[in-house]
Amino acid sequence: MKNRILCRLILYFMATFVVFALIIGMMFAVLFSRHNMYIHHAELERQAVNIANTLSEFMGENTRRGMGHGMGNLVTFLQHAENISMNDVWVVDRDANQIIFGHGRHRTQMQFQDLPEGSEQIIAKAFDGAVAFDDSFSLFWDMPTITVAAPIILPNETIAGVVLLHSQVYNINQTTGSGLTLLLYSMAVAVLASIIVAVLLSSHFTKPLSKMKTAALRISDGDFSVKTDVNQKDEIGELASVFDDMVDKIAVILDEREKLDRLRKDFIANISHELRTPITVMRGSLEAILDGVVSEKDKTDEYLKEMFNECKHLERLVSDLLDLFKLQNSDFAMDAQMINLKDVAEDVANTMTKIAHQKEIALMLISNDTDFAFSGDYGRLRQMLIIAVDNAIKFSPKNSNVEIHLRKDNKDVCISICDRGSGLHPDDIAYIFERFYKRHSEQNKTGAGLGLAIAKQIADQHGVTINVANRSNGGAEFTFVFHKNF
C-alpha cells in the first residue's frame, strides 16, 4: 500500500508540475514573443529615425538639385547604415520615382511600381510625416519581414524622401527560441528537483500511514495495547488520535465482554446450583414417601415441611430473578410520586420487627425530623430497604441491635442501616452488589445472592447512592443517600 500511495503521490506531483510548466511555457512563449516584437519594433523605429535624420542633414544642402546629386556618397552611407544595423536600408525619393539601395545585391534599379502590393500604404504614411510598420515586403524577401518607413524631414520641414528599413522576423524568432530553450533547460532542472522533493514529501506523508497499518495488523492479531505513535497537528494526526482512542475503546469493550461472559457463565452455574439443590431435596423426599421408606406420620410431616420450605425458596428465587430482570430492563418505569421517606422507613421497621424478634434482635428507627420528602416509587424503595435490613438481621448475633438512622444532610436525605455483626471482609465489599455473589457462611446458607443486586438496581433507578463501610465498633453500615430530585 505504501509503495502504491508513494508512487501515486509522486505522479500527482509530477503531473501537476508538468501542467504548470506547460501553462507557464505557453504564457512565456506568447508574452516573450510579443515583448521581443515590441522591443524589435522600437529598435527598428529608432534606427530608421536616426538614419532619416542623418540623411536629412546630408541632403539638406542638395534639396533643390534632387536626390541624384551625391548619389555615390548616399549609397556609401546606406551601406554603412546596413552594416551597423544589420538590416537592409532603402531610400525612396520625394516623388516615389526612384529607389536607392545600400547593399550590393540590390544595386539593380527598381521602379516604384515593382514594389510589393501594399507597400505604397506605409510609404504614403511616411510621406505624411509618420513612422509606419508593415510586413508586405515578406513576399519580396521570400521570408517573414518587418519593414519600418521613416520620413526624411529637411530643416525647412519638407519631406525629401522615405527610409525603408527591412528586418527579417527570423532574428526575432531566433531570440524567442533561445529564451524557450533556456526555459526548457530550467524546467528540466526543476523537474529533477521536484522529483526529489516529491519523494521526500510523499515519504513524509506515507510514513504515519505505514505506522497505522502496522498497528492495525497487530490489532488484528489481538494486541490492543499497540499505539500508532503518530504525533502530528494535521488531519493525519487527528486520524491517528481517533485510531488510538478507538483501540482503547475496543479493548475496554472486549474486557467488558469477557467480564460479562464470565458473569453469564457464573450466573448459569449459580442459578443451576440454586435450582438443583431444592429440586434434589424435594425429589429425594418424595421418593422416600412414595417408596414407603418414610411411613410414620411425624417423619412424613417433617419431609413435607422440608419440601414446603424448598418450594418457598424456589418461589423467592424466581421472584428475585423476575424483579432483577425487570429492573435491568431499560423500558421498565418506576411509579414515581411524592413520598415521605420516614413513612417508608417506619413501614420497613414495622414489617421487619417480627423477623428481628425471632433472632432476639432489637430493630430501632432513629430520626430527628419528620419531613423527608422524595420523589420515587414507594413499593420499590420499601423493597430496597427491606433487603438491607434483612441482611443486617441475618448477620447480626443474638441480643444485638439493628439501627435504621434517618437524617438530613444539607439537601440530601440519608438512611443508614447498622448492625453489630462481624462486618464485611474487605475483599467482599467490591462485589457484594453482583448477582449470586454471597459469603458462604452459616448465616447466609439460605440466600441466593440476588438481594443486594436488586437493591442496587432500585437505587440506580432512583439516583440513590449506596455507601458501604465497616463500623469502627463492629458491624457493617449501609448508607443510602437520596439526592433531592424535585
Outline of this structure?
With 486 residues, the chain is an alpha+beta fold.
Please give a structural write-up.
It is rod-shaped and about 165 Å long. Helix 5 (169-220) packs parallel to helix 6 (235-290). It has 10 helices and 12 strands. The chain has 486 residues and is α+β, with helices and mostly antiparallel strands. It has 3 domains: 2-175, PAS domain (Beta-Lactamase, 2-Layer Sandwich); 235-328, Signal transduction histidine kinase, dimerisation/phosphotransfer (DHp) domain (Helix Hairpins, Orthogonal Bundle), CATH 1.10.287; 337-482, Heat Shock Protein 90, CATH 3.30.565.10. The protein has helices at residues 2-60, 71-85, 119-127, 138-141, 169-220, 235-290, 297-328, 341-358, 378-394, 451-462; strands at 88-93, 99-101, 132-134, 145-153, 159-168, 337-340, 362-367, 373-376, 401-409, 412-418, 465-470, 476-482. It has a 5-stranded antiparallel sheet with strand order 2-1-5-4-3, sandwiched between helices. The protein has a 5-stranded mixed sheet with strand order 7-9-10-12-11. Strands 6-8 form a two-stranded antiparallel ribbon.
SSE arrangement:
Blueprint: H1 2-60, H2 71-85, E1 88-93, E2 99-101, H3 119-127, E3 132-134, H4 138-141, E4 145-153, E5 159-168, H5 169-220, H6 235-290, H7 297-328, E6 337-340, H8 341-358, E7 362-367, E8 373-376, H9 378-394, E9 401-409, E10 412-418, H10 451-462, E11 465-470, E12 476-482
Parallel strand pairs: 7-9
Antiparallel strand pairs: 1-2, 1-5, 3-4, 4-5, 6-8, 9-10, 10-12, 11-12
